[in-house]
Please model this.
Amino acid sequence: MVELIRKQVLSPESDPCTLSNYRQFQVIDTKLDLEVFFDSKAVGGSVTYNLQRLDVSADTIILDTSHLAIEKVLINDVTVDFAIHDVQPPYGSPLLFPAPQTDSLTAKIQFKTTEKTTALQFIDGNTAPYLFSQCQAIHARSLFPCFDTPGVKSPYKMTVKSPYPCLMSGRPVPSNAANVYEFNQPIPIPSYLVALASGDIHSLPIGPRSAIYSELPGLQACQWEFERDMENFIKIAENLIFPYEWERYDALVLPLSFPYGGMENPNITFATPTLISGDRSQVRVMAHELAHSWSGNLVTNCSWEHFWLNEGWTVYLERRILAGLATQEAVKAGKSVEEAATYGEQVRHFSAIIGWSALEATVELMKPEFTSLVWDLKGKDPDDSFSRIPYEKGFNFLYFLETKFGIEAFNGFIKHYFTKYRYKSLDSYQFLDTIKEYFEPLGKSDVIESIDWNLWYFTPGLPPAPGFDTTLADACYSLANEWVSYISGKSTEVPVTSINEFEPDQHSLFLETLSNKLKNVDREQARKGIAKFIETYPYYASNQNGEILSNWNDLIITHGGLSQDNEHVIRYAQWLGTVGRMKFVRPGYLLLSRNVDHDFAVATFKQFEAKYHPICRSMVQKDLKLK
Ligand code: BES
Ligand code: ZN
Model:
């Protein structure tokens, strides 16, 4: 076998995205005590680390900070001098203070966030002020001084004082003090999983070990969206991997400016309100965030260069969960066990096809260096490397391994891998070592030899194309083909096939496929065809599902030759001001900039900029070349 080229001898590799000296000290446990100041839009408090020395020569502790005001540092309860070095974009300003020559020590840092903190957003909630955090990938350092790398894990005890209810990424503990909320996270977690939300938040159950939190009104709609599936998801995942270790799985539905679909904060997944579509069509996101309870939260990438280990695994598990659910439902509907399992696989493959189509589109858009599985992030901002690539290329890699080794054998590997690395962080080379360690004794050395690991890990662009079962996709493809024939003039008949029976994801695949195929059609013909398309399906113009609405606008704006005073363009531009989910917002502004008018896109962004989360605002500014 061609030896895989390791970038570093040491495994897990060190993280280039932290300025801290995390390899010289081990964090035994962490205490984080916060207070929310809504008036001054800041969070203050202290963090206390119990540390064990790993390197006898280390005389300084270096922590990551970013736009934090450091008030005081105490070592073993004694105040010491500290220094903050200049900002080293994009990694922030390292905080340095002396480390006594003892084996163990306690470091306590008092701090306050500033208006430049990127991890926090203060907004007006429905009935009270609202605050939430988003720390992944490297924003935890702007909330509290830390070894801000996924390579460091610690159990946490957390408290937060606030005039409004608070949630943090741990198990709630009853508190005696007024307005103080207490949480315990006994499982060691990395800094990026520390999370905080405070506001007029209420909750309802969605399962025996799950509740949904949100502001009022709308709480019941949130409950309805997830109560059918939540416990089923957990049970299916437990069968596939091992029992859920975090005790409870709760989720918080945030206000509209939340920049992601979901964020797997332990014990309290944060989710965008765009999931509450009233048709349970986006429960997939909850299956995904739940899967992170194993991939990412128990077993973690050691640096963002190996992000596919978090997200590729999570998409893989998510699709296994969705297949399991579809199988169960088919059995309930009277299908035989065998037929039901076949249907489950069709559902999984349909989801993989949607993913593959996203992968193709993303490979076109992203810098080639970020289209490989393993990245080089030295000096780079992990937010810039973020795309669907680690998700979908990662999924395809694992699916490829599943087919190579056979699903039965791979099922055994899943349990082995997650057991071996739980509470740890690893790199892609250790993943490969574990593949060898598990499959060689099963007589699979030939299979291991036959795989081009360097191709999968380091080569940019699309991976080898898999063959997916297209049963559920065929209807989308054939209707897209009918429209291409009509629009390009090969057929004179307007397609009459109904779309009423389509599932939400089938609409997305249909619209996306059509948009891709029209790239090869004469522009003027496409423009006329799109006008007919809009007229034929009034269903789309009034659709409120964010996924479908985005796909439809992408199609008609890319190919329709629409100007900035077209009613659909105006409606879409205004809609971009109502959502903060980057998956919708970022491609939205690019679409307007490239296909309508750049200045119009910029003017629209300026109108809504203040409402967006700092991460989202900064990414759109980069996309529109405003900074
Ligand atoms: N952990 C991610 C969100 C994230 C990634 C935040 C990188 C910050 C940096 C989360 O699990 C996720 O993948 N969310 C997806 C949902 C999906 C793939 C079902 C999203 O936000 O769209
Ligand atoms: Zn994820």
